[in-house]
Design goal:
It is a single chain. The protein is mainly alpha-helical. The chain contains 10 helices and 2 strands, in the order H-H-H-E-E-H-H-H-H-H-H-H. The protein has helices at about 10-25, 35-45, 50-60, 90-115, 120-135, 145-155, 160-170, 175-185, 190-205, 210-230; strands at about 65, 70-75. It has a two-stranded antiparallel ribbon with strand order 1-2. The radius of gyration is 19 Å and the shape is globular. The two termini are about 35 Å apart.
């Protein structure tokens, strides 16, 4: 059904674009089942990880739906949601643009969290923050844990639109955050700065100081952008063998 893909563009981007075209053109219609992961690997000549990342992008774009034990199926046509992943959100320029959006969004989330968070919400945030230290201490990159902390703040606002937006931007930025944390991990001062910034956000929320919570969140993302600017170009060479779980969510 498909021919092998190759070239300078990231393989996952190529596979996602190829499958999207099949769906948009109607060659893969509503309700159709996509070829199995194994079949796509064989037909396209790419790794299983590449296929899974491409399918994850299609799912986030609202084009397909994975069904447990059955496969991946084409969803009904509808107005397509914003798809920042299709715009190469793992390049430095695009990630910096999204960080600017996050700065406004997460600053407001922190402000609202300081006025609305329940004791249960605060406990959840504290636990999410502690897991970052645990993950890093165990040799992990802390990406999922970092995303979970920011998501816990949004969830405490009770604003479902904000939660969905923070979650989406986090998913889009997963690769960029991994690059950021890899860059930060090579300098102890960066690691400690990130840790202090996270704790400052939580401290302001726990104190009910909405203005300081907003300022701390915005300051954290402003510094994150600055650290990204310092990242060596080599950190922006994504590895195609990083496993991406189709069913995972930030």
């Amino acid at each position: 059904m498909f021919s092998k893909v190759s070239g300078p563009v990231r393989l996952a981007d190529q596979v996602a674009a190829l499958l999207s075209e099949e769906i948009e053109s109607g060659r893969l219609a509503e309700g159709d089942q996509l070829p199995t992961e194994v079949a796509l690997v064989k037909q396209l000549g790419v790794s299983r990880t590449v296929v899974r990342e491409a399918l994850s992008r299609l799912r986030n774009a609202g084009l397909v739906e994975p069904r447990q034990g059955l496969g991946v199926f084409v969803l009904p046509r509808r107005t397509r949601p914003l798809d920042l992943e299709a715009e190469a959100a793992d390049t430095k320029a695009k990630v910096l643009q999204i960080v600017e959006v996050r700065r406004g969004m997460e600053g407001e989330a922190a402000y609202l969290a300081a006025t609305r968070a329940t004791p249960h919400d605060l406990t959840h945030m504290r636990q999410a923050l502690d897991t970052i230290d645990s993950a890093v201490g165990s040799g992990g990159d802390g990406v999922d844990e970092d995303l979970a902390f920011h998501r816990s703040i949004a969830e405490s606002t009770g604003n479902t639109v904000m939660v969905a937006t923070v979650r989406y931007l986090g998913e889009v930025l997963r690769g960029g955050i991994r690059v950021t944390r890899a860059n930060e991990a090579r300098r102890d001062d960066f690691i400690e700065a990130v840790r202090q910034e996270h704790h400052a956000i939580l401290a302001a929320i726990e104190a009910g100081d909405a203005e300081e919570a907003r300022a701390a969140a915005r300051r954290h993302l402003r510094h994150a952008a600055s650290r990204l600017q310092d990242a060596d170009d080599g950190f922006w060479t994504r590895t195609e063998d990083v496993d991406v779980d189709l069913d995972a969510a930030p």
